[in-house]
């Protein structure tokens, strides 16, 4: 019996077991979606603390309720492990590990390679291996396949491979893993059939002809956003000089029912996808002797935004308060890269923190989603810093506040009441703009 026939028979009988490698922002919601469809899931992570946390029914993430994880465990269809040998029981292995950049903006596939090195020692005939981590076109074939074939098994004959980019949007209340169509690509008919059988159990699938096309699809989605965010950031700067409110312009423009999609300016771009994915294509394009002019120009604009925000703060403090930034008490409001989540990956707030420190400011932060700054690759020096208490007395001690994240649980009017200067990068003070006009600067 061929591996495809056997696999599809298991799928039809409802007997597939799913293995998920990496139990973070992508892997955990994926596991939840399968358990909700009564599919058994074995979750693998290299962190024993993470595994213990999940097996105890705790999510470890603010936007995923503990009750969801507890229900998965109590149902008896989910367990987490640090023993890679347990993954031999799984029929499909879905890999959701980090794919960051190094300090030179080159792809860092060390987590993908390490995962494949681990899996090769436990790979068995008939399994499907799918990468979900964002990467450049060619990774599945050029990087993963050679490592997995060290097992002695041949891709396309003894096991199948596919690529299906994650499309998670943490904190989005309108869409989740089970409602966002899943792009799937594989280089063989067996890979496409097996991958489709896995994903169609939880979501609508969009099948493309090969893995490279699926890998490219994810990049296009996020490069589109990267470039449009850069465009609106640049327009914000231009319109400021013309005394035009960019947010009012966008609100008016988006009333057009066709041909316009609203993007908004901010203090920079964060998150594991938009901030990183464009450089994966830039790196791969150079391999083919090509340049990515739009991507690099967008990167120049977006990565300069934090320094521009602090420059604006410095100017406004000098003009309004006759104070220098050095020695001033500055509050950074929001550390997460987007609202209502506890994800700090690539957050521009960390860069704002760093630049303020460079200028000699006495910096504190407030973020109810991040009570303490964890260790980060970019700014390990901030690890252990704790969020302030949100009180009248504490807020009154600051010379200025920079609003970097627009969490909805913040009493923003308190800033108008107690802080003399507000640098608002998210337009959250709009409803108080008349009442505190002398304090608010949109930047």
Note down, in words, how this protein is organized.
By secondary structure, this protein is of the alpha/beta class. The protein folds into two domains: 3-209, Rossmann fold (3-Layer(aba) Sandwich), CATH 3.40.50.720; 227-442, NAD(P)-binding Rossmann-like Domain (Rossmann fold, 3-Layer(aba) Sandwich). It has 14 helices and 13 strands. A six-stranded parallel sheet has the order 3-2-1-4-5-6. The protein has a five-stranded parallel sheet with strand order 10-9-11-12-13, with helices on one face. A two-stranded parallel ribbon has the order 7-8. The radius of gyration is 24 Å and the shape is elongated.
Main sheet, how many strands, which sense, barrel?
Answer: 6 strands, parallel
> What would the CATH topology of the largest domain be?
Rossmann fold
Q: How many domain units?
A: 2
Distance between the termini: 64 Å
Average of per-residue pLDDT values: 95
- SSE series: HEHEHHEEHEHEEHEHHHHEHEHEHEE
Report strand %.
5-15%
* Rg result: 24 Å
Helix-residue proportion: 25-40%
Number of strands: 13
Number of helices: 14
Let me know the CATH homologous superfamily of the largest domain.
NAD(P)-binding Rossmann-like Domain
Category from helices, strands and their pairing: alpha/beta
Instruction: Report the CATH architecture of the largest domain.
Output: 3-Layer(aba) Sandwich
Shape: elongated
Overall CATH class of the largest domain: Alpha Beta
Poorly predicted ranges:
none
């Amino acid at each position: 019996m061929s591996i495809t026939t056997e696999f599809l028979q298991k799928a039809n009988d409802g007997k597939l077991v799913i293995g998920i490698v990496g139990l973070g922002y992508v892997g955990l919601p994926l596991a939840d979606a399968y358990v909700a469809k009564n599919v058994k899931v074995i979750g693998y992570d290299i962190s024993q603390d993470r595994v213990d946390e999940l097996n105890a029914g705790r999510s470890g993430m603010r936007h995923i309720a503990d009750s969801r994880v507890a229900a998965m465990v109590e149902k008896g269809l989910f367990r987490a492990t640090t023993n890679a040998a347990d993954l031999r029981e799984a029929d499909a292995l879905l890999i959701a590990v980090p794919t960051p950049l190094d300090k030179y903006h080159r792809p860092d596939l060390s987590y993908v390679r390490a995962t494949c090195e681990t899996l090769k020692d436990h790979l068995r005939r008939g399994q499907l291996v799918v990468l979900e981590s964002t990467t450049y076109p060619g990774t599945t074939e050029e990087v993963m396949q050679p490592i997995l074939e060290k097992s002695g098994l041949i891709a396309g004959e003894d096991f199948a491979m596919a690529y299906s980019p994650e499309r998670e949007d943490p904190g989005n209340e309108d869409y989740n893993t089970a409602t966002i169509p899943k792009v799937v690509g594989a280089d063989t008919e067996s890979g496409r059939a097996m991958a489709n059988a896995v994903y169609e159990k939880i979501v609508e699938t969009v099948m493309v002809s090969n893995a490279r096309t699926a890998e490219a699809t994810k990049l296009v989605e996020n490069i589109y956003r990267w470039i449009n965010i850069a465009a609106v950031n640049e327009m914000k700067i231009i319109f400021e000089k013309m005394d035009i409110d960019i947010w009012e312009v966008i609100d008016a423009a988006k009333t057009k029912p066709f041909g316009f999609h609203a993007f908004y300016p901010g203090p920079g771009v964060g998150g594991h996808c938009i901030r990183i994915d464009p450089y994966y294509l830039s790196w791969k394009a150079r391999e083919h002797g090509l340049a990515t002019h739009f991507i690099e120009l967008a990167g120049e604009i977006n990565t300069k935004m934090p320094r521009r925000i602090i420059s604006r703060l410095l100017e406004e403090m000098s003009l309004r308060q006759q104070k220098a930034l050095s020695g001033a008490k500055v509050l950074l409001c929001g550390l997460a890269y987007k609202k209502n989540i506890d994800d700090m990956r690539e957050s521009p707030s960390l860069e704002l923190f760093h630049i303020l420190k460079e200028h000699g400011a006495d910096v504190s932060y407030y973020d109810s989603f991040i009570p303490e700054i964890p260790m980060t690759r970019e700014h390990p020096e901030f690890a252990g810093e704790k969020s302030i208490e949100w009180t009248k007395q504490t807020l009154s001690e600051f010379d200025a506040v920079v609003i970097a994240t627009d969490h909805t649980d913040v009493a923003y009017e308190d800033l108008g009441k107690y802080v003399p200067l507000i640098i608002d990068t998210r337009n959250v003070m709009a409803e108080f703009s008349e009442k505190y006009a002398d304090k608010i600067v949109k930047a």
